[in-house]
Specification:
Elements (H helix, E strand, L loop, with lengths): L8 H10 L19 H6 L1 H5 L17 H13 L3 E5 L2 H13 L5 E5 L4 H10 L2 E5 L3 E2 L4 E2 L4 H10 L5 E5 L6 E2 L2 H10 L3 E6 L15 H4 L3 E4 L1 H4 L7 E5 L6 H11 L6 H36 L6 E3 L1 H6 L4 E2 L3 E5 L7 H12 L5 E2 L3 E5 L6 H18 L22 H6 L2 E5 L12 E4 L4 E3 L7 H12 L3 E3 L6 E5 L1 H10 L4
Parallel strand pairs: 2-3, 2-6, 6-8, 8-9
Antiparallel strand pairs: 1-10, 4-5, 7-12, 9-10, 11-13, 13-15, 14-15, 16-20, 17-18, 17-19
Bound molecules: pyridoxal-5'-phosphate (PLP).
The site of pyridoxal-5'-phosphate has 15 residues, from helix 5.
Length: about 500
């Protein structure tokens, strides 16, 4: 890092404005908190005073030339890139902007099938053609992990005209692919490398963590600072480096999907989170890793419960592992992760990040306290004391995992004529919507894919498990392409 990270240009100017007794005739309509509101009573007037909408001196996010630009330059320095863009629509927005700025309609992009829904939506908006790489599947834990280098290489060699390779660094569960090697492979063939670093904003700040996108040489990445380094929810960045990035196109794409009234609170929270990480990350992160390791050891003493470590993933082919993700396998107790997730919340006031069939996940971050990990370990002991003596049948791993086959581009399926059918009639039809459980928000099926029996079984299983299912359709129905009208429609409507 080359810059003075004690500075917080945007936050400092915002605070100056909030305390300046300026008479507000602009929006927002709460006029620096001169209203009655239940939120104001609870959160205080300062929350509203800091919620300003680009007054003089506070710069403009759509074309930064002042304090936002200075804050972004510090951000770029901290993340090891050349240029940073502040986002108030999360990494969801970052992924949309990156893919839309790189791929035009019918151009190819190589990406793992376990991408977040925002990448699928970017395919719909851009019209790009996905070349999916099947990620490594861990049947024991029931999760999808890294992409094997050989699989990416095959996709690159088979699709030399692809514009970019998209890599998740790390996955929700902390697993990474060999990003540096993928970057070399892609750059040799003039392809860009774009990263989803929603779960990896802390990576640039410690050598004990997997490589960050910028260290590995990627061109662009979007990072959810709100997930692991303490900024407010929805605040993210795009970080970029090198000469392959078309900044004019990227800026205009960001401005297309960014609000013209971005939240100053979110922007300020990015500025101060960067300062904290730049100044303290190197000392804080090793402490978090140490807490994670010790907590794993304690959890591994509990009968029927297992905490998964980096060695497990590396033995299973992962390139590296982010140890701040704490995966706890509970299915040997005869409970699903969904059962444990509910019980931890209902009976122990513990909110986990997510549940899957076999596991629950805790995300450790700069806000994690030792006492909160102690509470988790104690609650897991209680879970074990209750269920282990019952000798319930462990949940068996599902042996067969398959991803659906693509029939057409997501955008084509999105625009095609559609109809709604009950799930039991959907076998072998072409999906016209994405369906996912949230979290993690990774689609089970996306528009344009053929609905297989496995998809229908998964859907039924997740419905029964009480998971939050996100789809456009409710009540046991699914949106599919109406094939009867599709041919006629294609003759009239030439989709790009
Ligand atoms: C892998 C992955 N990518 C992208 C996102 C989107 O990030 P955000 O919540 O900042 O919009 C998420 C959100 O959970 C995610 O899990």
């Amino acid at each position: 890092m080359e810059k003075d990270h004690k500075e917080t240009p945007f936050f400092t100017k915002l605070f100056e404005y909030a305390t300046s007794n300026t008479i507000s005739h602009d929006v927002p309509g709460h006029k620096l908190g001169h209203i009655q509101s239940d939120l104001l009573d609870v959160a205080g007037e300062m929350l509203y005073k800091l919620d300003a909408n680009a007054p003089r001196g506070l710069d403009n996010l759509n074309r930064p030339t002042g304090v936002i630009m200075e804050a972004a330059e510090l951000m770029a320095d901290a993340f090891g890139g050349d240029k940073a863009y502040f986002l108030t629509g999360g990494t969801t927005m970052g992924i949309l902007a990156m893919i839309m700025s790189v791929c035009r309609a019918k151009e190819k992009i190589i990406l793992p099938r376990n991408v977040h829904k925002s990448a699928i939506n970017a395919l719909i908006l851009s019209g790009a053609v996905p070349v999916f790489v099947k990620p490594s599947i861990d049947t024991e834990l029931g999760i999808a992990n890294h992409m094997a280098y050989e699989d990416v290489e095959r996709a690159v060699l088979d699709n030399p005209e692809a514009k970019a390779v998209f890599v998740i660094n790390p996955t929700y569960f902390g697993v990474t692919s060999d990003l540096k090697a993928i970057v070399e492979l892609a750059h040799e063939r003039d392809m860009m490398v774009i990263c989803d670093e929603a779960h990896g904003s802390h990576l640039p700040f410690s050598s004990e963590l997997p490589q960050s996108s910028m260290e590995a040489g990627a061109d662009m990445s979007s990072c959810s600072l709100h997930k692991t380094v303490g900024s407010l929810t929805q605040s993210s960045i795009i970080i970029s480096q090198g000469s392959r990035v078309d900044h004019v196109r990227l800026r205009s794409t960001i401005n297309m999907i960014q609000s013209t009234s971005p939240s100053s609170l979110l922007l300020a929270s990015l500025d101060v989170a960067r300062k904290t990480m730049a100044l303290e990350g190197e000392t804080t992160i090793p402490k978090i890793i140490d807490m994670a390791r010790k907590t794993r050891d304690r959890i591994n003493e509990i009968p029927g419960i297992k905490a998964i470590d980096d060695k497990y993933f590396i033995q299973n082919g992962a390139y590296d592992y982010d140890e701040t993700k704490l995966i706890v396998k509970v299915s040997d107790l005869g409970l699903t992760g969904f059962d444990a997730y509910k019980e931890l919340f209902d009976e122990h006031h513990i909110q986990m990040e997510l549940a899957e069939t076999h596991l629950i996940l805790a995300v450790l971050s700069i806000g994690t306290r030792q006492e909160d990990l102690d509470a988790l370990v104690n609650a897991l002991w209680e879970l074990s004391n209750k269920y282990f003596p019952m000798k319930l049948r462990p949940i068996l791993p599902k042996v067969k995992y398959s991803y659906p086959e693509a029939y057409t581009r997501p955008r084509e399926a999105y625009h095609a004529p559609k109809k709604y059918v009950p799930l039991y009639q959907a076998l072998d039809e072409i999906a016209a919507e994405s369906i996912m459980i949230y979290p993690p928000g990774i689609p089970i099926v996306i528009p344009g894919e053929i609905i297989s029996q496995d998809i229908l079984d998964d859907f039924e299983f997740y419905q029964k498990s009480g998971s939050v299912i996100l789809s456009d359709t409710e009540g046991g129905y699914i949106k599919i392409i109406d094939k009867e009208y599709w041919d006629k429609w294609s003759e009239i409507y030439e989709d790009e």
